[in-house]
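User: Here's a chain of 465 residues. Predict its fold as C-alpha cells.
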Amino acid sequence: MADSMSAVKRLIDELGADAVRTDPAALDAAAHDAWPLSAKLARLGRHEHRPDVVVTPGDEAEIAAVLAIAADHDVPVTPRALGSSVTGQPLPVRGGIVLDLSRLPRQYELDPVNMTVEASAGYHGGQLEDELRAAGWTLGHSPQSLYRSSVGGWLATLATGQFSSYYGGIEDLVTAYTVILATGERIRLSASPRAAMGPDLRRLFLGSEGTLGVLTSVRLKVFPLPETRLYETYALPSVAAGLRVLRAQAAVGLRPFLLRLYDPAEARHALADPNADRPVLFAGTQGLRAVAEAELAALTGIVAEHGGVPRGPEGALAWMDRRFDFSTVERRLAADGEFAETIEVAHTWSGIEPLYRDLTAALAPLADEVLAHFSHVYPQGTSLYLIPIGRTGSDAEAVDRIGEIWATAMRICLDHGAELSHHHGGGLARSPYTRASLGPAHLVLRRLKHALDPNGLLNPGKLGL
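Assistant: Prediction complete.
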C-alpha cells in the first residue's frame, strides 16, 4: 500500500471506524475464498493474498468515496461479496483495499407485471430465491453455490445455473444493473426487453470480475413456478452415446430443465452405487403437464435410438435433493494432504469427446480419481466438468499438486481450442492463460480496462490484466 496509514485514516474519517478493519483476523479471512488451493493455503497459515484493509461500505456514495481515496493514494481495490468463488476472483494480489459488498443494505423489489426483480448486488442468492418462491416465482438461476453466493457475484463471474438448458445463463437472465466506475461515476445499463441502440453495453461488465467497475444493484428476470416437473434417469452404453443424445435433443429444440450426463467414474458417485459401470443421464422436464410429458417422451425416444434405457426417476430425484451439497470436496480439503479440485471447461460437439479423453487421461496420474460430467448443453456444444480427487503426503504437497493439475488442464484445453472456463470464471486460477485463450481479442479487454480504470486499481491480476 503506497500510503497505507493516511489512506486508512481517510477511510475511517469518511466511513467511520466500524466500516474499516485492519485487524489480523479480518485481513486473513479476506485472503481466502472457496478455491480449493486457497483452502489448503489457509490450513497452512499461508495468507498470500492478504489485503491491507477491509472496508464495508453502506451505500453507493460510500463506494464512490472509497474509490476516490484509493485513486488519491494509488491503492488497489478488490471487490468481494460472499467469497464463494472457486478460482480466486476476490483475492488481492497487491494488498490494498478489499471492498466488502456483502453488508450493503439487502433489499429487493418484485415487479410481477414485467416479471423482474431488482435486488442489491450483495443480496444472498439463496435467500432471494427462497423469498421469491414463497411468492410463487423463481429466478431460474440455480448454481451449486446458490446458498453461498451473491446476486452481483453471478454477474461479475458470468455464472450459470444447474437448469441452464431451460433458463439460460446469467447473461440471459439480467435485464439491467448499476455499476460504479473507478472514477466514481454511477452508470445504469439496461435493455428491456431488448434494445438495438448501438452495442449491447449491458454485456460489458458481465464476467469482468470487478476489473472494470463495482456492481451495486441488479434487475433479473423471474418466472412463475412450473406447474409440473417430471424426472427420469437413463443408462447409456458409452460416453460417446451420451454425448450424441445431448446433441440430438438440442438439435430438435427440446428444453429439459435438467440434463446431466455422468461418465462411469462419476456415475458411481451420482448413483451412490459402487457397482455402476455405465454412464448415466439425469433428466427433467417442466411446465404445463402436457408439454412436460411430451418432452420427456421425446427425450426417452432419442435415448433409445442411441442404445440407452430408462431406469426410473430415483437417481435424478436424489440428485435434486443434494444438488447444493459441496461436502465431498470440503471433506477432502479439510484432511491433511488430501485434495479435490473442480475444473469446468467447454467445447463444440466435434471437439468435446477428444477433449474429454485427453483431459481425463492426462489428469489420471495426478489424482486417485478423475470424475467427469456434462451438465450445460447448447445447440453448438456442451460443458465438461472435471473433479480430480486424491491424496498426497501433506497439505504443502497438495498445494503443488493442485497447481500441476491446473497447468495440465489449461495446457490441454488450449491445445484443443476449448473454452478455458464455462461458468467459474477466470480468477487467479486462469489468469495466466487468459491472453492465450482470448488471443488478439485480449487487446479489446486491455483497452477497455485502460479507458474505464486508467490507473489500473480495480482487482489487478485477474483476466491477464
